[in-house]
Specification:
CATH architecture of the largest domain: 3-Layer(aba) Sandwich
Bound molecules: coproporphyrin III, fe (ii) ion
EC number: 4.99.1.9
Binding site for Fe-coproporphyrin III: 52, 121
Family: Belongs to the ferrochelatase family.
Strand content: 5-15%
Mean pLDDT: 95
Distance between the termini: 50 Å
Catalytic activity: Fe-coproporphyrin III + 2 H(+) = coproporphyrin III + Fe(2+)
Number of helices: 11
Main location: cytoplasm
Structural class: alpha/beta
Strand order of the largest sheet: 2-1-3-4
Number of strands: 8
CATH topology of the largest domain: Rossmann fold
Helix content: 40-55%
Length: 348
């Protein structure tokens, strides 16, 4: 199949103090996130001058992918569009159409399945194509890659670096990913597979990385919980987990945010501030492993996923779990796959 562009599709983040509230309102509209939580998260952004690093990090990762495409003699222009902040994917798709793009591949910046990590990017594709209307480019999403050898190798190397930094070979290895409502996790994946696609894939990626670095003991925990307190989300939270490890007598922690592909705000606030501060209070050593971002292996991984589509390169994966997500024009991976969990009304 011939493709004439690659669309890099991400979450987006504010680029200045005045962007923060409009951005947060866009992220949470209709999602039942309490106003107190919104105000608290706004403070996290304001702590960094209202600027999330995510757009800059995406531009760096794109530059790495452009370099890798050039090295492999592939000519494929890369476009950048976001769900929640400028450049918005609707505007990017309109620009692609104006440039004559007919058939594009889409790389969504998440390794996993599930509603928030996969299906919501399909919804972005649907929305952007609908906004353009007739003649919108075809948009074919690349697959999930949580168990791709290049992803595992990149994360494992970052974990090794963090062990060097923490200076304690006995440090406990703790993986984190963004928490989601337990109902959303249960509904993720085709019904015949019984759901839990997101949490199972996160657990599998963690297992592969732990095996690669030779860690016998490790934990998978969650971070950045939002939503009203009465709604159950995946637990335990990383900060509570640090308390629990302290009670167990653990003296040092290496934390790998395996649920993310860049060191964006949820990583630098929730881990480098909140989790690291708790560890310091408890006199535990703490080091956070980097995410892939502009690691050359990550760029190679993206180009390999492209070549799976353009040249039939055979997909590499280290586990037997399903790798979904590769669908056209925002279709779900399977019937009733990764439907949003029904959310309680924010206020009645
Ligand atoms: C699974 C998952 C990923 C990983 C997959 C992927 O990477 O796509 C992810 C990534 C991210 N989440 C991010 C930021 C936010 N997420 C929020 C809220 C939520 N996230 C959720 C899930 C996820 N989120 C959910 C279920 C909610 C509740 C509202 C809803 O049901 O939709 C809120 C609202 C405020 C709050 O935290 O309450 C913010 C600000 C940023 C950008 C950081 C930056 O600016 O640098 C990134 C990359
Ligand atoms: Fe899915």
């Amino acid at each position: 199949m011939d493709y004439d562009a690659l669309l890099w599709l991400s979450f987006g983040g504010p680029e200045g103090p005045d962007d923060v509230m409009p951005f947060l309102e866009r992220v949470t509209s209709g999602r039942g996130v309490p106003p107190e939580r919104l105000a608290e998260v706004a403070e996290h952004y304001h702590h960094f001058g209202g600027v999330s690093p995510i757009n800059r990090l995406n531009r760096e990762a794109i530059a790495a992918v452009e370099g890798e495409l050039a090295r492999q003699n592939l000519s494929l222009p890369v476009y950048f569009g976001n769900r929640n902040w400028h450049p918005l994917v609707e505007d990017t798709v309109a620009r692609m159409a104006a440039d004559g793009v007919r058939n594009a591949l889409v790389f969504a910046t998440s390794a996993y399945g599930g509603y928030s990590a996969c299906r919501q990017y399909d919804e972005d594709i649907l929305r952007a194509r609908a906004a353009f209307g007739e003649g919108a480019p075809q948009l074919v999403k690349l697959r999930q890659f949580f168990d791709h050898p290049l992803f595992v190798e990149s994360v494992a190397d970052a974990v090794r670096d963090a062990y060097t930094q923490v200076g304690d070979p006995g440090a406990r290895l703790v993986f984190t990913a963004h928490s989601v409502p337990t109902a959303a996790d249960a509904a993720a994946g085709p019904p015949e597979e019984g759901g839990y696609r997101y949490s199972r894939q996160v657990a599998e990626a963690a297992r592969l990385v732990a095996a690669e670095v030779g860690a016998e003991t490790y934990d998978v925990v969650w971070q950045s919980r939002s939503g009203p307190p009465q709604v159950p989300w995946l637990e335990p939270d990383v900060v509570d987990h640090i308390d629990a490890l302290h009670d167990e007598g653990v003296r040092a922690v290496v934390c790998s945010p395996i649920g993310f592909v860049s060191d964006h705000l949820e990583v630098i606030w929730d881990l480098d501030n909140e989790a690291a501060d708790r560890a310091t209070e408890l006199e535990m050593r703490f080091a956070r492993a980097a995410t892939p971002n502009d690691d050359p292996r990550f760029a190679r991984l993206v180009v390999e996923l492209v070549r799976e589509q353009t040249e039939g390169v055979s997909p590499r994966s280290l586990s037997d779990l399903v790798n979904g997500g590769d669908t056209a024009n925002g279709a779900p991976c399977a019937t009733r796959c990764c439907e949003p969990a029904r959310r309680p009304a924010a206020h009645t």
